[in-house]
Amino acid sequence: MEKNRVFFIMPTQVNGQGEYNALIAVEGEKGYYKTDWFWGKDLKIAEQIAQESNDVMGINKEQANKIVVGTMAI
Question: What angle do helix axes 61-73 and 43-56 make, rounded to 10 degrees?
């Protein structure tokens, strides 16, 4: 069975222009992966894009948060 992957934003992960880096957490794996995608300078908008992307994959906000937190507890 394939592991769920979710997009999320970490406020400390920005590039030199202040744009938020899209990150990926994988269910059952420690840590996260950086992407080459930057979703603007507004934290709320970047978080909204992450959740919209998760929604498309059928993962709601509660499920996404559980996966992200779970990657920190392993």
Answer: 100
Q: Is 70 exceeded by the pLDDT of residue 52? A: yes
Number of domains in the chain: 1
- Looking at residue 74, what is its pLDDT? 63
CA 29 to chain centre: 14
Look up the domain containing 50 and give its range: 5-73
Strand ordering across the sheet containing 20-26 = 5-14, 20-26, 33-38
* Residues 17-30: tens digit of each pLDDT: 999 999 999 999 99
Q: Is 20 within 8 Å of 12 (Cβ atoms)?
A: no
CB-based contact 20:39 (threshold 8 Å)? yes
Identity of the residue numbered 39: W
